[in-house]
Design brief:
Number of domains: 1
Helix content: over 70%
Order of helices and strands: HH
Largest sheet: none
Strand content: under 5%
Structural class: mainly alpha
Mean pLDDT: 88
Shape: rod-shaped
Number of strands: 0
Number of helices: 2
Length: 153
């Protein structure tokens, strides 16, 4: 048997013949075909996908920014509307208080006028009653005097 290093040395001989060149040509042809039919279309598709994704992200960011701006605008309008409502409510309450005071003053004046009229009527009735009573008192005094004096006037 031959030693191992001589067997290995004998088997490592590279034979460059036509079959090697054909195989190399086929591999290069396969690489060119794969490059044009698979790798380049795949890379174009990835680039287009990246561009679409980037465009969609930019569009989404723009929509998000617009939504934030609209939200801010709505909040400002809502705050302004609330402030206006509070102001109008305050004005309405002031106006209602003034009207209430005016109505109370009018009612008080009407009450005082009625009381004055009632006092005047009562005083007139009292004066009338006093006049009637004075006449009756004179007549009664004459009756009493005549009874005490025994029928002499």
């Amino acid at each position: 048997m031959e030693p191992l290093h001589t067997c290995l040395a004998a088997s490592v001989v590279i034979d460059l013949n036509a079959s090697f060149l054909i195989q190399l040509g086929l591999i290069l042809l396969l690489l060119l075909l794969l490059k044009h039919l698979i790798f380049e279309p795949y890379l174009r598709m990835e680039d287009a996908r990246f561009e679409r994704t980037t465009a969609q992200l930019q569009r989404a960011q723009a929509l998000h920014d617009r939504a934030l701006a609209l939200d801010s605008q709505c909040r400002e309008q809502l705050q302004a509307a609330r402030a206006k409502a509070v102001s109008e409510r305050s004005q309405l309450l002031k106006q209602a208080a003034k009207e209430r005071e005016a109505l109370l003053a009018q009612a008080q004046k009407e009450g005082e006028d009625r009381m004055a009229e009632a006092r005047e009527r009562m005083e007139a009735q009292i004066a009338e009653a006093r006049r009637e009573m004075e006449g009756e008192a004179i007549a009664l005094a004459q009756v009493i005097r005549s009874k005490f004096l025994g029928g002499r006037p």
